[in-house]
Amino acid sequence: MPLGHAKPALYAALILLVSGVLAQGLGLTAAVLDAATLAFGRDARMRLLHWQNVVDKNRNETDLIKLEVANQLVNENRFLDDLTLWDAQDYWATPIELFGVRAGDCEDFTLAKYFTLRAMQIDEEKLRVIYVNALNLEQAHMVLGYYATPDAEPLILDNLVRSIKPASMRPDLEPVYTFVGSSLWDAKMRAFAAATPVRFVDVFLLRLDRGAFNAMRARLTPQST
Amino acid sequence: MTLLRQIMFVMLGLFVLLFCANFALMLQESRVNLTAQMEAHAQDTATALGISMRDPARQWDVPMMELLITATFDQGYYAEITLRDSAGNVAISRQQPSRYRDVPRWFTDLIRLPSPSGEADIVAGWSRLGSLFVRSHPGAAYRDLWRMSLSFLSLLGFMALLAWACFGLTLRAVLAPLGEMERQAVDIAQQDFRVIERRPRTRELARVVDATNHMARTLSELFSEQMRLTTRLRREARIDPVTGLANRLEFDALVTSLLESEEGAGPCALILLQLRAFSAVNHSAGRDRADELLRLVARRIENVRLPRGAIIARRAGADFSVFLPGVTLEKARVVLQMVYGAVAALDVLGSVEAPPEVHAGAGFDPAPSAPGTLLTTADLALRTAQSTSTGGTHLLTATGDTTLTEWIATARQWRERLETTLATRSITLFHQPIRALDDGALLAHETLARIRDGDSFLAAGAFFPFAERFDLAGELDILIASALLADLPGRCPRFSEPVIPLDRRPRIRCLAHRRTAGVIDSPRPVDHRIPGTCPAGRPGSHGGPDADGRCSRLPDFDRPCRHLVDNIRVSRPATLVFCESGPQVCAWPDRFRGKPPVADNTRAARAHPQHRAHRRRGRNPAGTGGPARRRRALRPRVPSR
Question: Across the interface, which of B40, B119, B127 has its CB nearest the CB of A187?
Fold first, then answer.
């Protein structure tokens, strides 16, 4: 019996309490870590702690270093499409789930990078989630763009091409439209909370409460071992 | 304020409080939802507009972009749509002041919905050319909230009314026993110890009702016990234990209160009756016998037809007193005679060894002011009566201007007088018609038998007791009947010839009917019990003979000539009925019981209890009573056996 089932209200209260302290961070409280352990195992806890560590350590670095660190950390995960991984169409996983299962698709990568960089205190105005058309794959794709100034050429953080490159060096991508990451996330996650902003930690806990990972675990565990 | 109303107000208050809390909660919830909705709306519009402006933005085609913004702005609820270039300068802006029609100002001030906004980029390729800012207009949200509040409040009002009505009815039903208990309490205070029959369903109330019922029963028992005790004590204090009459104390109190009442008593009389030397009876016959005698005297006095309001008492020893309020001198005289007669005619007085002499004196006061004068006068009258060595009655008036001394003083003199009357046949009859109240039809004649005494007449009530004592009553009856028959043709022309020889002694025969007595010597003797001889004037007109030919009831004579004689032998107003089958005297049969009391009727008379006859006579004295009462007496009655 998962712990999260028993006391969701307690979790919510705890999260509210510590969110003030960790407002700038990822919001990975002990309770969240416990919940993640419950959902994805002890290794997941270690990965999340590592992630937290990386964020904390690079908080005072330059933007470029933050971009590099975040891109590298997130791109270590495998690419798996939503249908295989979550048995659902267009499933937006939280970074906790991404690190928990060590896999995700383009949205998961992009959002994980976005939240990591936001936790490292990069200005929201400089970051845009960009819907692009991956011309080689002939597939809709999502990348994170970094705009040093509003009208500058963005740096593209992508999981297809692991290294960060300026937009002009990515002829394989055709930009469609850009979004502010938080508002896109909030719009997507409206189902989870009436009030914005919607924190990914809360989304994860709610999903855990609803038993969203039970089926996934049962499906994935034999494959991963 | 009644309990019901208090409970109702508290209840309504709670109801309203609850509803208000509910309302506030709902309002808050709606506010959050509407805000989220507006926020989403703003963001969606910004995104959609940003995407649609990709192409015109490429050449920074301001008129085209303005057209798009205006089109979007005009068809939706927006407070502001602003387009800024990448440097942050406003390129295009549309704004709408926050005016809210349909919603009162105080409501918007109270609710204060936020006006959330959304932002989107204007992009061309990888480059961001500007940003779009959209702010939602909360007008529609205010209107929705306002409408919702109104419908909610009207629902609240309706529900409150409904709850009020339901609750009121329920409470009223539940509390109804309280009213009943209140009435019971008031009744108990007024000494009506009734019990609530219907036990309330509410347990607490039921217990209270049980308790009060129990209390009412206990109180009722206590109270009736007290009443019994009081009555007994009162009796012991005011009633003479031997005779059951009032004692002297009670008598004096009653007379005094009557005389001193505001209306006054009018002319009054006080009769004092004394059995002289009664102590001798005590000695010779024993106390029990003497007490019995006193009781008998008391009954005899009581049975005399006394005027309304008369008070009888045993004053002391063998002294009796009768107070007569509102009587005339003549009436007082008659009553004095009757009372004296009733006692003096007692057979039993002769049964003791030394029979006491009876004396009666009456004081009459036309305008009494104090019981003293009346008593003094009566006492004087009694002494006067006693001073005449033979005993008798005496009447004095308080003013002293009239003194009537009765000529008949002793029983012996009575006997002589009656025998003289019988020998000379000097009975006098007075007749007066009795008519029905409604149509004035002649019902009967009332016949009053009197013995002439110089200028005045002696009433039957006075002489009949003596007639009975001396066994002369039968003779007297025959005398009266004969006189009546002789007198008949004058008043009932239909019976033109006298049908009875006056020198013959009439035979009195009992009829089958219990209420009728005898036939006086009809020319053709009729036995009503013999089939076929029913004396109905016209058989069939009154029921006639039955299947056996017997008369089942007294014939309802066809226009009979009826006479009610005030005192005929049976000591009850007998009805003399003359019908076509012959003249008949129908008297009360208890005395006869089928035994024809002919010549030697003394035996028959003795065989029956005398007091009974006396009582009957007493109730029907001469010349009193109205037609209505007579009429009742006339009605033929169906036999009860």
Answer: B40
Task: Give me the residues of B, 38-67, that contact A with CB < 8 A.
Answer: 39-40, 43-44, 47, 50-51, 54
* pLDDT per residue of chain A (225 residues) written in tens, 0 to 9: 444 444 555 665 555 555 444 444 788 888 899 999 988 888 899 999 999 999 999 989 999 999 999 999 999 999 988 888 888 888 899 999 999 989 999 999 999 999 999 999 999 889 999 999 999 988 899 999 999 988 889 999 999 998 999 999 999 999 988 888 888 888 888 777 766 678 888 889 888 888 878 777 666 655 443
Cis peptide before B267 (omega within 30 of 0): no
- Cα dihedral B241, B246, B251, B253, rounded to 10, equals 80
CA distance B127 to chain A (A): 6
Nearest to A178 among B36, B39, B121 (CB): B121
Angle at B175 between CA B169 and CA B179, to 5 degrees: 120
Q: Is A178 in Cβ contact with B43 (below 8 Å)?
A: no
B207-234 burial, b for 16+ CB within 10 Å, e for fewer?
ebbeebbeebeeebeeeeeeeeeeeeee
**Three-class HEC string of B228-284:** HHHHHHHHHHHECCCCCCECHHHHHHHHHHHHHCCCCCCCEEEEEEEEECHHHHHHH
Query: Residue A175 is nearest to which of B39, B126, B129, comparing CB atoms?
Result: B126
Residue B121 pairs in a beta bridge with B131
Distance from C-alpha of B81 to C-alpha of B50, rounded to nearest angstrom:
11
